[in-house]
Amino acid sequence: MDYNIKDIGLAEQGKKQIEWAEMHMPALINVRQELSQRKSLKGIRISAVLHVTKETAALVRTLKEAGAEIALAGSNPLSTQDDVAAALVKYDGIKVFAWKGENDTEYYNNMTEILKYEPNIIMDDGGDLHALIHEKYSNLNIIGGTEETTTGVIRLKAMEENKVIKYPVIAVNNAFTKYLFDNRIGTGQSAIDGIIRSTNILIAGKVAVVVGYGWVGRGIALRMRGMGARVIVVEASPLRALEAVMDGFDVMPMSKAAELGEIFVTATGNINVISKEHIQKMKNGAVLANAGHFNVEIDVKGLKEIAKSVRNIRPFLDEYTLPNGNKVYLLADGRLVNLAAAEGHPSEVMDLSFSNQALSVEYLINNQGKLEKKVYNVPQEIDEKVAFLKLKGMGIEIETMTEEQKDYMKQWKYGT
């Protein structure tokens, strides 16, 4: 079959979810109308590994309207919304291979399935599909690709530095209209949403430890403070650590923060930033959550090795009893908490990211054969267009420079 999902019977509910998302994605709908008129993706085959959510559905439907054929797999074993997957199959004819609760083998098998359609364009979130292609496929006619997230861009830059990258890739994550909003504002809200849904604990008054002060960490720290938490930042970069201090947060190493925190959220893209040694220092009742793309930031394997007992308390909330008798609570088995235990980013912020995705795909097609095999940032004209469309959808007008002002900005002779 051209799909493998949990239950096609969920399609009607998924259709309503997609309609709800598209109501809040005016920029992407505007892009859809443009691409549909141009049919600029006609005959293009796209294989995409993305979180299968109602917002992703809006993007996929946009690509289809532009003429593309799409095969879609999930970019996290726990992030697929099964009703949305069913709606895409039943009502839109999208080849979907994804369901919530995949094991690791199923996760990679689904990626293999979508590559059977011999894609021309690769869309990825996390870099797993790009890596799989580079490791095992040499016969695909790929024009180029896109990458949605920080983790994936880091992997692709490593491929570029090692001179193994096989096709041009646009780092959608690096667009201003992506990382300033999706990473910071979207994850800032959705990660806390996942923590609250899985625990129903009060944030106010608690000591929250945010590990990493990149754009995701900034957003989480800011919103934790806004909800009344006392926030500690753990950061290895002196530049980001200094920024966190100047933003009013306490900064210290994890070895000290482990003894103080009550809620821990990782957002680094690195491995074992909360180790089993750190966990053994934690207070009774500490909550552990990960907001990074992969489930490597918390040493879950080490935690399971030292735990005297483990029991599930409620969905996505597992209790681990440590050798000293203290209990710690791991959310979503250390996976991406905002998508595993909640619904991911609100549609309004994904409107920006996915408008960038759609326009970047068109850019790759229009510039076929002109781009080197390396990682590119989103062209500035696309970034600014997305911002303009978003403002337009919000009913906001901005200033327009006069010709005199434009000329002034281009010259160097005027002085005081």
Automatic annotation (TrEMBL):
Binding site for NAD(+): 149-151, 183, 212-219, 235, 270, 291-293, 338, 345
Cofactor: NAD(+)
Alphabetical UniProt keywords: Cytoplasm, Hydrolase, NAD, One-carbon metabolism
Residues holding substrate: T53, D125, E148, K178, D182
GO molecular function: adenosylhomocysteinase activity
Pfam families per the UniProt record, alphabetical: AdoHcyase (PF05221), AdoHcyase_NAD (PF00670)
Catalytic function, reaction form: S-adenosyl-L-homocysteine + H2O = L-homocysteine + adenosine
Alphabetical list of SUPFAM superfamilies matching this protein: Formate/glycerate dehydrogenase catalytic domain-like (SSF52283), NAD(P)-binding Rossmann-fold domains (SSF51735)
Subcellular location: Cytoplasm
UniProt domain S-adenosyl-L-homocysteine hydrolase NAD binding: residue ranges: 183-344
Domain of life according to the entry: Archaea
GO BP field: L-homocysteine biosynthetic process; one-carbon metabolic process; S-adenosylmethionine cycle
Gene Ontology CC entries for this record: cytosol
Keyword Nuclease: no
EC nos: 3.13.2.1
Gene3D superfamilies assigned: Adenosylhomocysteinase-like, NAD(P)-binding Rossmann-like Domain
Cofactor note: Binds 1 NAD(+) per subunit.
Pathway assigned to this chain's UniProt record: Amino-acid biosynthesis; L-homocysteine biosynthesis; L-homocysteine from S-adenosyl-L-homocysteine: step 1/1
Enzyme class, first EC level, given as a word: hydrolase
Role noted for this protein: May play a key role in the regulation of the intracellular concentration of adenosylhomocysteine.
Annotated PANTHER family: ADENOSYLHOMOCYSTEINASE (PTHR23420:SF0)
Protein's name according to its UniProt entry: Adenosylhomocysteinase
Gene transcribed to yield this protein: ahcY
